[in-house]
Amino acid sequence: MTSIQAPPTSKPTGSAQARRVRIVVALVVGAAVVRAGDPSGSWNAGGLDRFWDFFAAAASPELSGDFLALTWRESLVTLSYAILGTALAVTIGLIGGALLTRRWWESTADRSTGIGWRIARTAGVLPRSIHEVVWGLLLLNVLGLDPMVAVLAIGIPFGAITAVVFADVVDERSADAYRALRAAGAPRVSSLAYSLGPDARDDLASYAFYRFECAIRSAAILGIVGAGGLGFQLQLSFTSLRHEEVWTLLYALIALSGLADGWSGWVRRRSAGVVAPDNLSTRRGAHRGVGTWTSLGVAVAIPLAWWRVDLDVSTLWSSRTRSEATYVLSSLWPPSLRDGWRTVIDQAVDTVALAVLALVLAFVAGVVLSLLASGAVGPRGPGTGGPAGVVVRATTRAVLLVTRAIPPPVGAIVVLFVIRPGVWAGALALGVYNLGVLGRLFAEVIENADVAARDALVSQGARRTQAVAYATLPEVWGRFTALGLYRWEVAIRETVVVGVVGAGGLGRALDDELSAFAWGKVSGILLALVAITFVVDLTSGWIRRNR
User: Fold this and answer.
1) Which homologous superfamily is 76-319 in?
2) C-alpha to C-alpha distances, 67 to 72, 225, 251, nearest whole angstrom
3) Out of 282, 327, 397, 415, which residue is the most buried by the measure of CB atoms under 10 Å away?
């Protein structure tokens, strides 16, 4: 008698895995909407007058000589902190990024990563889970009113985030050349640098410039913890309801962010060979020229920033620092919770829901605006120089710049004029801010993409929107997904700064404990944030692998 054998168990196909991802994403988004409740119940029509008064002041900023001089001085302080913090973050990111890549831990025999990669990824969760404002408050208690507070508060979390993004960018590249070098006996560092580095260079440089732009806003936010700069003046003017002064300071922030964005765009355009695209030798020469000028600019900017804020690294190992660090660390441990785990879990669910809703809003709108900002769609299409196309691209980029230049705490306060405190208020504030961030990053991904397939479809008679849909978007969607998932993790951290102004979640609880200097309870909430970030990191990795 012939026995019937059970069919062998097979792994889900790619399409089946993709369906599972879509189902999970839909369930998470749906749960977040249910958790947030009916958005119409959050509307506060009584705050419309204050809302319009704030934006009306944008047309009449404070332009007195004394205030402009003050704005200039504080802008230099903010810019100096951003330069030094970014330099530290990129240094940490390059080193940590190599250690977080799958390639670094990959066995030359069976290509498995083993447990080393998982340990490295887990260790990187802690520094990036804590927002730079919290780092600033902790370091302030150790270092006092010292410029190192702002530099470290920016450099540590940004460095950890940069390391993850760098690692993901490298891991998405083909590993054939790297594996060939490793098989030939080349060390890991050289294999990464020569095989994967050149291919990922444009995305890495683009992200480093973006990190600098973020550092400008973070340096401003850190003004509220005593770092000085534009953030401190913003706090004073907002508290005094001097909206004209607020807009002068915001315009300064927008200008600094625009400077970083313009520099980044110039470097990318020159590196891509926009000048003389048909001449390979000229394009290579342009790339070398851009690299030289950028390196010189960085080499000059760092010592000037160091001098401007009078940075003294010896503060890190002074006897006072050692004594205060010992006190703070002993106060943070053991962690405790005021109202028990049930309350913390409830606040954590609000935090995740807030971040999910903000990301959905930012992702959908960011994709649409990035297509306009990059010139992939719109009047006359890319590269034609049509006046209408130039206006559309410039206007879209300006909108993205303004939305991401305004710090989330300021945006949250403005949103609270018309949206009652709660999850929807925080989601809207973070969503608008992250829209500017993702729109900018998505546009750069599109600009860095190969246009051959798109142009081929257009030459065969396809409309440009069809060519973008069938050629460009499939090519860049992986990067869009990776960047969106990364922003989800960042949004978890940013719930801290919108939570302090009434958005709810763990951010609100953390603000209460920090105000009371209840360090044990602060560490308990921070551990909850670390746990959420770890889960989000695992979820993001699963989605990236199975999308």
Assistant:
1) MetI-like (1.10.3720.10)
2) 9, 22, 13
3) 415
- The CA-based diameter of the chain, rounded to the nearest angstrom, is 100
Per-residue pLDDT of 366-388, as tens digits, reads 888 988 888 777 665 444 456 77
| Phi, psi of 404, deg, nearest 5 | -95, -15
Distance CA 473, CA 457 (A): 13
Q: Could you tell me if 482 and 172 are in contact, meaning their C-beta atoms sit under 8 angstroms apart?
A: yes
Q: Where are the beta strands (DSSP E) in 138-295?
A: none
pLDDT digits (tens, 9 = 90+) for 195-218: 776 767 777 777 788 788 888 888
DSSP string, 463-503: -HHHHIIIIIHHHHHHHHHHHHHHHHHHHHHHHHHHIIIII
DSSP state of 187: -
Return the domain boundaries, the chain. 76-319
Return the bridge partners of 43, or none: 419
DSSP letter string, 382-405: TTS--HHHHHHHHHHHHHHHHHHH
Which tokens go with 249?
């300071």
Q: pTM of the prediction?
A: 0.76
